[in-house]
Specification:
- The protein is mainly α.
- Helices cover 66% and strands 0% of the residues.
Length: 134
């Protein structure tokens, strides 16, 4: 599936039919296996501080749910899926803060795609920065 605008309806139908043919139980078990794999490489354990443990896992969950690294055209949203404030916008330098996490916990392609996103948006970032100089 190439995500081209003209193919969205057709691709959506194909994906729905694929999901239907797999069935709920199989999809659920695939989902569980995928999250087990993610947690096996990205969990951080903080002993003796339950509040900090809960907070770090909440943040790890958000990072992993909002960015898979499969598409270099995408970046990590400023609030992920937890808020509507930014309306789908991203910051071109978000990966500067999240890259260390993904370098340690994910496939190398994930980090590469974050850096490619920055590289491909660098020209516009320089253009926007120039507008702020007096």
């Amino acid at each position: 599936m190439n995500n081209a605008k003209e193919n969205l309806a057709k691709d959506s139908i194909i994906r729905c039919n694929e999901a239907k043919s797999k069935g709920y139980t199989n999809l659920f078990h695939e989902h569980v296996r995928q999250w087990e794999r993610i947690w096996s490489t990205s969990d951080v354990v903080i002993e003796g501080d339950l509040s900090a443990q809960q907070a770090i896992r909440f943040n790890i969950f958000h990072l992993n749910q909002t960015y898979t690294g499969k598409d270099e055209r995408l970046n990590i949203g400023p609030k992920g899926f937890t808020g509507e404030k930014y309306g789908g916008s991203t910051y071109w330098d978000t990966e500067a803060f999240a890259l260390p996490f993904f370098l340690k916990t994910a496939d190398q392609q994930v980090g590469k795609n974050l850096l490619l996103y920055r590289y491909k948006h660098l020209e516009k970032s320089i253009e926007n920065a120039a507008k702020t100089w007096f």
